[in-house]
Amino acid sequence: MADQYQFNTNEEKIVKDSHTKEIDLINRDPKQINEDVVKVDFEDVIAEPDGTHSLDGVWKLSYTTFTVSKYWCYRILSAVFGIPVALLWGFLFACISFCHIWAVVPCIKSCLIESQCIGRIYSLCIQTFCDPFFEALGKIFSSVRVALRKEV
Predict the structure, then answer these.
(1) Which of 24, 72, 106, 118 lies 20 to 30 Å (CA to CA) from residue 132?
(2) What are the pLDDT digits (tens) for 81-93?
(3) Alpha-carbon gap, residue 143 to 94, rounded angstroms
(4) Where are its TM segments located (predicted)?
(5) End-to-end Cα spacing for the chain
(6) Do the beta carbons of residue 67 and residue 42 sit within 8 Å?
(7) Distance separating alpha carbons of residues 54 and 96, to the nearest angstrom
């Protein structure tokens, strides 16, 4: 009975839909696709060279303003536009997948089948007409000897 329960538990894990999987709320870029693109800090944008420094308070306040405004602006934009944009991207990739599955792959497969047929006809023509011609030329010129001499 315990083995059957474990089998049923494993079967449920296999049958689970990919839409219900848990997402990682800590590491939100596990494949690191945005590692170098949008990871922008204050030091990456604003820098004061030696000899040209603002007041320390202004520098600290600028850092805080940049960091907090970037944080909250991203949060507000993602809260307002995140779901609609995700819906658009989901729709776009669904359309691309649909076209690829139902149009592109069958079209490529059809072209491959047709090209194999044409390739066989082409090969038959070459074997029928060209092979005997070039064999005859080979036999004609097989007795030709070339000698290279270096004259000084």
Answers:
(1) 118
(2) 999 999 999 999 9
(3) 67
(4) 76-103
(5) 100
(6) yes
(7) 52
63 contacts: CB under 8 Å, gap ≥ 6: 42
d(CA 90, CA 16): 21
| Per-residue H/E/C for the chain | CHHHHHHHHHHHHHHCCHHHCCCCCCCCCCCCCCCCCCCCCHHHHCCCCCCCCCCHHHHHHHHHHHHHHHHHHHHHHHHHHHHHHHHHHHHHHHHHHHHHHHHHHHHHHHHHHHHHHHHHHHHHHHHHHHHHHHHHHHHHHCCCCCCCCCCC
40's CB contacts (< 8 A; 6+ apart) are 70
Which of 28, 53, 49, 23 has the alpha carbon at shortest distance from 39? 28
* Both structure tokens of 95: 């359309």
Which residue is associated with the tokens 């590692």? 35
